[in-house]
Amino acid sequence: MAIDTRETVSLETSGISPGDVSLRAARIRRVPGWLRPNLLWALAGFLIGYIVGYWAGDFIAGAYPVAANSGTNNVAVVLALTFGVIGWLAGIGVLNYPLQKILGLDPTPAVPDASFARYFRLTEDHKVVGLQYTVGSLLFLFTGGLFAMMIRTELLSPTTHVFGPGTYIEIVSEHGTIMMMMASSIVVGTLGNWLVPLMIGARRVAYPRIEAASFWIFMAGYVVILSAPFLGGFPTGWTGYAPLQTQASAGMDSYLVGFAVIGIGMICAGFNLAVTIINYRAPGMTWGRVPIFVWSILATCALLTLATPTLVVAGLFGVLDRTAQTGFFVTEHGGSNFLWQNLFWFFGHPEVYIMALPGFGIVMEMLPVFTRKPLFAYRIAAAGMIGVALLSFFVWQHHIFQSGINPDMRPLFMLTTELISIPTGFLFLVTLGTLWKAKIWFEAPMLFVLGMLFNFLIGGITGVFLSDVPVNVTVHGSFFVMAHFHYTIMGGLIFAFFGGLYYWLPKMTGVMLNRKLSIAHFWTMFIFFNLTFFPLFFVGILGQPRRVFEYAHNLQTLNDISSIGAFLLGASFLIFLFNFVWSVCIDRTPAPPNPWHSLGLEWQTPTPVPWYNFEHTPVVLADPYHYGEVDAPPVADLGERGGATSSTSSPTPDDKDRGVDIRPHSM
Amino acid sequence: MPWGYGDVVNKTGRAALAGALALIAAGIVMFAFINLMSQPGTVTFAASNGQVNVTLQTVGSYGSGDHPTWVSYEIQTQGGTWQHTTIWQVPARTQVNVTILQYDSGSPLRNEQLGQVTGTVGDVATLNGATFSVNNSNVGNGVGHTFSIPAIGVSVPLAGVNGNDTLCGAAPCEPSSPHNVIKFSFMSPGPGNYPWQCFVPCGLGWLYGNGGPMGTVGYMGGFMKVV
Amino acid sequence: MTTSPKDTSEAASPALRGSDDASHWWRIIAIWAVLSVAFDVVWLNVVGPHVPPGRMSDTANGAAFDFNVLIVMAVPVMIAIWVYMVYAVVMWRAGRGGPDPIGGERARGNNRVVTGWITITTVVVLFLAGFGTYELVQPEGAGGGQGPTPLWTPASHNVLQVQVIGQQWKWTYRFPSFGGFETNTLEIPDNTTIAFHVTSLDVIHSFWAYQLGVKADANPGQDNVAFTTPTQLGSFTVRCSELCGLWHGSMFNTGRVVTPLAFNAWATSTEHQLAANTAVLAPFAYTYTPDANGADGGYYPDTADPYSPVEQYGATQPAGQ
To answer: ipTM score here?
Structure first.
């Protein structure tokens, strides 16, 4: 049952009157902005934490023979990075609330903030967090993309020519890790945080502080993973296989700490949204009316919450092996290199669906709008995503078919892997059913939907090849795998994400992106994406392993085509970047209130959406897919007449005290 | 203005700000790219009388620079100075006469197969003047390093000096420090970049001895460029 | 409420009005059938016989056969979806006009379509899993590494044992039936089942004999066995296919399949040539645990007896060290 959530938890539990809060809020407001926790303090905190941690590690372990001989003190590096992250979180103010509670102090009330500076602060507004994640994820994406272009630059020639072999592996590893970190959060963090409460008719998320912390943890991960090149890089790729991991130089600590930090952020983000979806649905928002995007986020959040702890634990084991020589992953010292492979992929395969399901959700959410039809087989769509989420825990050993693990697991994991294509195939059942006799409207989001379906089909079908053990013998560890998962993640998730951005940015920022540039971005991205990655299937089955700086001379033409495609793909993203910056930051031509004529509840709110989302908790009357009906019911009753709340329509006193402009249509 | 920044700067100001940020970002990217491209220098050897003479030395700890405790190779340029790099260039299809001054101590090999001399002229090398084709690292002072170019099958074990002597601890080593002289010749192949490395896991303080100097170009491995 | 974006578009084309569900279906199926049959026929006759990794061994042959089976099944599936999408985009785009789509229950699902879809995908998937399992079991494990205790072993008793040792960063090969000599070059006889015993002295590598259709990870302290039977003479590429550090990209060499006679001659002469080296090698074993003296670089303190019973490589410590 949904809950009326107008009042914040802090008010209910702190036992103080709203008046006290407003007084204290006013006092806090008098402190100059730059003195309150913000990004600059976070950076300073990271630096201070890093220095303190490094000093402590040097004090503890500087004289250990292993540190003296190798010239590398992993204890110091790990402590420096860990303390750096803690300093970062302290600087941004994440620790204030829990510390105040622990010490029995009155927590500082959240100050609703309408200034631009709120984007650089800890905030309790899920919409601000969503936009923060949008910019943060794009930063991750473009950083990883630059590394990708460096990889393709090196692979222009079959021997080493631009980067040294060590630098090349570092670049490959950075690219892979940054992109995986980005892809885990690029939809849940951005569109998920921004849209889910609006879509389910909630006025807030369940854990706003944890949600806000998840973003700043995510950005701490960015700082940590980018520290790797300064510490000698790491040579393991994003999979970080031990014992190479145990052998690697200090950059490896950035990988282990960074992935663990990102993992904690993923758990926070997933937990918050899962609880929000389950508990904060508006009256009438039954499971049969929940938008399909919310179903996809729910399935994803279940995976984020359940699978990611394995990654954090594996990272901790890795850190212990590298600092205390515990030997979890070192065969000669009682460990096993298979342990890392199993732990990593036990997380890693659900992770693959963390990076696929939100894409399905976006595509299925936008299709009804651009076909003007109800979603076909809604229940099948939801069931398919739940089925994928469940099955994804039972397929991980297909990543290590040839590794020498117990061979009688092979038929089982071949079966489960192929079974997962049944619920995954529901995506196509639903989308094709929705396209049937539709009225397809070609706007940029719809183009991305069709592009995603085209790419993901290739990615999904080639996955069947990989699951077949005899074919896997040839394609495992080759460029074929690499092309396969770029088709699913980049061709699937990233295409869906950009479609979603074009679709929802008018709501999120109040401005339309330029239509011509949007469409130009789609066509260049679609063509050059395929030009980059399609040849790599052939490169793979013709015998080129992944992550090599030397390859057979007869594969140069295919590699060069791919590289040229990659550079053009990079240029395509510049079109987006220009469009985004120009439209959102500079030009700011206001968007129509509902440019796509969507029935979604999120579009029924005013733009910009007030910080409490809905003036009254809405009463949901129907699912948002009643397209093509002559007398379709309204999706929700937003007014007092619906009896959603018993209060009047005037602003509540505490809203006034917070000094926030709560007029519903303020611009 | 609820979006929060319209009142901070006007449109021209925002455009200028965005442009400035773009320039800064481009600068950072260029800086990173150029830094990642940096590699140790290349020492070029020219043929005289149809042969190339190459002199290398190994030192147990380099003694200076970013990683003073790391073991390293060094190359002597034709001008006679020592250069801290592992990238060198020779002409194609020419006899390369290699002299290696081995200043480091040895140990038993982890894989005794590396005690076999392969790929050199006559499949032999000389150790302080004495010809050998197999080095049994279980006796004597063991093997400190190898010089190996896997792609053309060249591999020569470099016998260690007695670890109880006062070893050279900073490059370039003086001939007064205890050392072994290993000489051998091989024919350079056709043009290309051929990785070469030491196969003795000599990275002290790294798991399996193959991290650090063994995993970094410029210390225990590099390229032989053949043109 | 159902504002259609292009409500003011031109009048619906009569052709579309006249077409019913069945004719759409038949058109899509006809286009799909023609394209799929054409693709499969062309593939099987033109590309199929040359598909990687080739026909150099029974396992390569099996992999190529599987690849072809998957292609002729998978591409028609892809064609079906693409034909449908293109058909939808061409026939039902808003710019073309036509009546507004029908909403309501009729558009929200169709039990026959859903049941049919689930049935077909389930049958295909179960067939593929069964077929894949059969193909895995048939040619002695399909050339994949099966760990120390292989489940699918060759019927032949004439098996040549070849040990593959991965180390950072090269491959060496030992032939226990020829005195256990260890060499940089790999030669194997034709028409003989080969048991590759793949192991590593340090990190994980992966032995990928590309044209033989063999891939097995080299793990420290593990004997990973993969079988194959070469059926053609010629050379094949060996690459490392698991990232193993700095020189991973250059960790490759070329092996050769020769006649049994030539193999015997090569192996016997190499055995003699390397006799001095073989004498100092560690005795042949399926795994080697390099001792800590020097070999693990002092990462783990070597306080234990340096001459531990498991030690195979790196024998006695010379005097004076």
So the answer is: 0.92
